[in-house]
Amino acid sequence: MPIGQVKKTGLSCHLKWFEQHEILPLYKAGQFPNALCARFIPERPDVLAVAAYDGSKIIGMAGASADTPIMWQIGIDVEKNYRGRGVGTYLVTLLKNEIINRGKLPFYGTSLSNLHSWNIAINSGFIPAWLEVETVEQENYYPCN
User: Fold this and answer.
1) Is the pLDDT at 5 greater than 60, yes or no?
2) Are the CB atoms for 98 and 74 separated by under 8 Å?
3) Model pTM?
């Protein structure tokens, strides 16, 4: 179970929450490839998102997809010029807490090589629970004898 309190950012930004039906128009922009799916996917729909705004510009968005009826996966995107200021951790923590309030179990998946994403997850109260390793078969690969 993820733990932790909401950490504030040093930015003066306002927030907007998006329920599932309000997320559909956001697919057209395509600017949140980690926070939202590329399109509506009935098997694991995006069900909730929160965005941080600097004026009228979205500077970060955390989204949750219902990967199972009880487990919602969190993703995050932060605009390049706003990274490293705590926006990602703030949004992920807010979304994690709201998912828990709705009686669901939040989880956060990331690549082993994405250290920045790992830091956001850990700073938002997540702890590593499992590791997935994948191998790729290559053509003309000859192991040493």
Assistant:
1) no
2) no
3) 0.83
